[in-house]
Every structure is written in C-alpha cells, then in structure tokens.
Amino acid sequence: MADLTALAAMAAASAAYRRLAERARTADPDLPTRLTGWSVGDLVDHVAWGAAMEAAAVRAVAGLPAADPVSPSLVEAVTAFEQAAGLQVDPAAAVVLPAGTVPFAYAAPLFAFEAAVHSADLDHALTGEDPPLSADELSACAVVIGPMLDLLASTAPVGEVVIDLVGLGDGIRLSTNGTEDGAAGAWQQSVPDGRRAATTLTGSAQDVVLFASGRIGANRLQVRGEAEHAERFKAYFPGP
C-alpha cells in the first residue's frame, strides 16, 4: 500500500464527503443506518458538524477564520472542507481537534478515514452494500486505525494478550501490557516482537477497516486462535 501524502488524503476526504452529500440530497432522513440508534438524518447532521469542524481546524492552522455559517448544512460544510483541502499546510503543523492536537500529516488521513467510513455508512443504509473504498482511502485508514484503536482502548483482559489484524497495510498489533500480579493491564499498539498472537484476524483491507470501526463482525474475517478476543474486540476498543 503506497505512502499517502497529506494533500492526497485531503483530496480523498473531499471526494468521499462530496459523494455522501450528493447521495444524501434524496435520501429519506428517517431511514435507519447500521449505527445503533442513528437514522440517515442523524448521520447527515454528524457529518455536517464533522466536516465543518475539520475545515475550521485546517483554516486555523493556515491563519484563516472559520467559514460561515457557524452551523452549516451538509452541502455548506462539504464546500468549506473542499476549500480547506486546497490550502497549503505544513505536514508538521499542529491541528487542534476535539480529541486532541495532532500533526497535519496525521489529521489529513484521519479526515479521509472519517469521510470514507461515513460515506460507506450512507451507502449501506441506502443499498445494504458497502462500496469499494479507493486505494487512497485504504491508505489513509492504514495510517489512522492503529493509533485510533490505541486511543479508544478500554476494557482489557487479565494478563498479557496479543491481537493481530492482518490485511490492512503492514498489519496492526495490539497488546495488553500485562501486570505481575495477573490483573488486567492496558491495551497499546505495538510492533512485532516475537510474541505469538493469542488471536489473529485476517481479511481484505476493506473488511479490516469495517471490522476495526465496528461496522461488521468477526464472522467476515478469518479468525485464528482464541475466538473470544475476536468476539469481544469492540468491547476492548469501543467506537468510533
């Protein structure tokens, strides 16, 4: 999977947001989505907020004020994001987001991940299918998902456990830090270190993305080792 520049990630996010906005124009806002408790209208409202927030964050780094209006429609938010995507931003520049401050080199693929997955959410609500993610969208997801799972990590089992996700980029390894007294530790993203994984989940790049983001279950992946950890994965890593 090729390295992705921040500029290419912003372009991928813009394209995904635009696709979503175009399909949302004629979608029934009361139609349910696969996101628990969310209708298409809820999804549209969330994406409008997210795209506007992301555009404002990029504009702030570039020394520009946030675009009007403050509470935009989906089309207005996407237009603002597309304009922000054309700005020249240093990849090392600090971008302030609700979850924390990250370099633009990470923020841009994070935006592409959000746009791609939510665009797929709308497609799934309308057709019951997931459209193929583009190569740039998958590259963005490969950059983002490991650190994202590290950030979202919640419940950890007792002792030391290693879970490998295989199929997206170079793969993702998540492990507990185990404690000497056998109590539950904490999850962290780690590099291959010779330890054998308790559970290995293997699938296509797209299925790994959808599984890690809670859109599909482990039954869509090949599971080797202890099935319990595959079944509890989203309890370990809730959201997004």
From TrEMBL:
Pfam family, one: MDMPI_N
Signal peptide: none
Listed InterPro entries: DinB/YfiT-like, Maleyloyr_isom, MDMPI_metal-binding
Domain Mycothiol-dependent maleylpyruvate isomerase metal-binding, first and last residues per copy: 11-94
Entry protein name: Mycothiol-dependent maleylpyruvate isomerase metal-binding domain-containing protein
Natural source organism: Nocardioides humi
